[in-house]
Design goal:
The complex is a heterodimer of chains A (109) and B (114). Chain A is mostly beta strands. Chain A has no helices and eleven strands. In chain A, strands 2, 4, 5, 9, 10 and 11 form a six-stranded mixed β-sheet that branches. Chain A has a five-stranded antiparallel β-sheet with strand order 1-3-8-7-6, with no helix packed on it. Chain B has no helices and eleven strands. Chain B is an all-beta fold. The chains are: A mainly beta (109), B mainly beta (114). At the A-B interface, strand 5 and strand 9 of A face strand 5 and strand 10 of B.
Chain lengths: 109, 114
């Protein structure tokens, strides 16, 4: 079956760094997405990886290892506004997204 | 401004009634999707459509129906057959082959059955 696993909740301190892990199992693979979702709002696109390695975008970076079925999202210089849920989604061979349950990130001052 | 609109933002329905959720996009995207999100769970695909006049069932289509008569519009009807319809409903669109094929989301409709 197809499955995405990510931690349910994480807590970090303002100004620190946090890494949110995601493991996936899909029928075929056409890339890994990370979305941010604030409570009661729509998800917004953060990053996409299809090749192994690290993609950096400002304070956010995303890493992919296809052989391990593993990705992580790295958030640096955490700000209070980064408090949100972070959704990992893998695209399968039919170009459909398989979604994880999301990781709720709590930032403390 | 291009984007996806969903209306209404909040919707209350009595048990046994059908209700239709609106989704419109002006991004000229070919594909559109409906998801359901429950607390503590990931997005679950209800229906999707890759071209006009064609749509496919997702993982949880029972109790729902859709139509795709225009490229811009993909309304979702929640029927009385859906046993537990209270949820947050998200519409999304994308164009395969364009950039990352990422999905763009509307603001969502929160449906509550009384």
């Amino acid at each position: 079956g197809q499955n995405i696993d990510q931690p349910t909740e994480m807590t970090a301190t303002e100004g620190a760094i946090v890494q949110i892990n995601c493991t996936y199992q899909t029928s075929g693979f056409n890339g890994l997405f990370w979305y941010q979702q604030h409570a009661g709002e729509a998800p917004t696109f953060l990053s996409y990886n299809v090749l192994d390695g690290l993609e950096e975008k400002g304070r956010f970076s995303s890493f992919l290892s296809r052989s391990k079925g593993y990705s992580y999202l790295l958030l640096k210089e955490l700000q209070m506004k980064d408090s949100a849920s972070y959704l990992c989604a893998a695209m399968d061979s039919n170009y459909q997204l398989i979604w994880g349950a999301g990781t709720k990130l709590i930032i403390k001052p | 401004d291009g984007g996806i609109t969903q209306s209404p933002k909040y919707l209350f329905r009595k048990e046994g009634q059908n209700v239709t959720l609106s989704c419109e996009q002006n991004l000229n995207h070919d594909a559109m999707y409906w998801y359901r999100q429950d607390p503590g769970q990931g997005l679950r695909l209800i229906y999707y459509s890759q071209i006009v006049n064609d749509f496919q069932k997702g993982d949880i289509a029972e109790g729902y129906s859709v139509s795709r008569e225009k490229k811009e519009s993909f309304p979702l009807t929640v029927t009385s057959a859906q046993k537990n319809p209270t949820a947050f409903y998200l519409c999304a669109s994308s164009t395969p082959g364009l950039d990352y094929n990422e999905q763009f989301f509307g603001p969502g409709t929160r449906l509550t059955v009384l």
